[in-house]
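Team,

Forwarding the record for the chain on the shared tracking sheet. I've put the sequence and predicted structure together so nobody has to dig through attachments.
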Amino acid sequence: MNIYKNMKTKKVDVAIIGHGSAGISAYKAAIKHTKNIVVIEGGEYGTSCARNGCMPSKLLISGGNAAKAIRDAYSFGISTHKTEIDDQKVMERVRSLRDQFVSKITNHIENIPKTHKIQGFAKFLDNNTLQIGKDRKVTAKTIIIATGSTPRLLPNFSELGTLGITNEDVFEWKKLPQSVAIFGTGVIGMELGQALERLGVRVTIFGRSGNVGSFSDPDIQEAANHLYHGEIDIFPGAEIQEMVPERKKVHIRFTSMYGNELEQNFDYVLSAIGRIPNVKKLDLNKTSLDLDSRGMPVYDPESMQCGKSNIFIAGDANGEKSLLHEAVDEGTIAGKNAALFPKVSKGSRRVPIGIVFTEPEMAVVGKLYRELPKESFVVGSVDFSFDKRSQMLNKNRGKMNLYIDKKSKKLLGAEMIGPKTEHIAHLLSWAIGFHATLDQLLEMPFYHPTVEEAIRSALNNAKKKI
């Protein structure tokens, strides 16, 4: 008996599974070449960034930074009353603005023709056929996987019940808890950890690598490890001995990287150890795709094509970079190639850039230290401790290393932790994109006094070594 015989079938040129940042961009790109297209969404419309990722997290961070600025006012000779934090209003603001951001995206989705949308979870029957729910099929010339990702959970996380949470739960809090244990010293763990700490929550951050952030430059990594220890209770190399629910709290017994055994109780445990691509339920085994050891499709990052097939993958679903601008670029490339298939072209990719919105901020641009051949480059360094503008702002902490090619003198990449690095990182990424050399960059204007003058200091430091 053919169980699929009585299913309603829709035939299209392009089918997009998922309508987050990558899916939206794929649709915009594909619709320029074909109107016979459908977007299939199994969950809520709206992007992870707007709903429970980069946007609400920055709102929470802004609240924490405002509270910290008031407490630090005394260092400027300004006397302030005791800082009082109304956590209910803090979270109301986070959700209110978050909902505004989400509504702008959902408004766009509502303007998409109904014939181009299907609500339901999709899975593959073969390279050209998708099953949605129990009674619908879509046959497509090409298919784009843009299913996003979900938080990776700690082992035995389910045993914690409601005391175990992810970042997606934090932004629904009406009031802030008294204490949170955060597992993960990457972007999510560090940003939320510092924000909650500044808003009066007792926070302890646990990691396994022994490091903070994702720096590959040992010099910058050492600076990061040192700087955050003064503000946040952090154990980047902890060994967890026991983690169990106990009297409506979570009891954690652990050994620090120095061998000390400690015990603490927390209201919640937040799993921030990364994200997992949403591909397991797609039944990729029914396609002809080559899958790696993780069960992920092997694909070309320049065309987003999976092997030589008619299937493309974009955004968080490919498990590479969980960044909005990367998802947008990948969706655009995938959408165009899917619509013009079998004509497939390589799309241009931007200079890699990553920013962590802690204080001090962390950023990486272009080639990482570990990606560069040894002896092929020099390092131009600057210590923000002595930067005049940073001293004025009382934010003179951190370090920046620029990587300059010895032969061409071109700027290749940078890793940094310090003040205003979200702006410095953008300037450096543009410079790398234009293939700027050390001498050309030193000819650029540097207004005085600005934190951007630190770039000139690092360049001059590199020039002495070439």
